Amino acid sequence: MTFGIDSPIGGLLVEVGPAGVRSIDFLAPGEPVDDERSKATDAIASRLRAYFDGDVDALDAIPVDLDGQPPFRRVVLATLREVRGGDVVSYGELAALAGRHGSRVPRAVGQAVGRNPVPIVVPCHRVVAADGSLGGYGLGLDRKRWLLKHEGVPDRPGGWVARRSGVTPR
Description:
Elements: E1 2-5, E2 12-17, E3 20-26, H1 39-52, H2 71-80, E4 89-90, H3 91-97, H4 105-114, E5 127-128, H5 141-150
Parallel strand pairs: 4-5
Antiparallel strand pairs: 1-2, 2-3
Helix pairs in contact: 3-4
């Protein structure tokens, strides 16, 4: 089932399967949001609204369906879900948290994060470059900046790194 929802950063098109959210895409500007939902998806829409209304922990309760994703990407994205709102990690830190080590692993982690089918709920916006710069974001750096500020991550002159994550390495 697919439904749309308005957000402060644009309309979202949310695809939900039996196990949870499979994908989130942005609607084109001016594209109407179909807000009809079933009872099964109403809880997801409510949690997304709560997140955009300021409850950054509301994303934690949204089930995600990563079936069909390659194993490495599933591990990286599952680890990324453990990074709490208000925290950020670098690609290298995320690799270590996922139990992956090696000089090329942060790049592979970056590619996995860049192919995240469930942005916002699997919070790829919480990953920054090692130097604290925003790095990339497939949905646009303005949206990434908005999401980080919304979660209370301070925009520091030296970068966005606010390493407070309670995630423990695997």
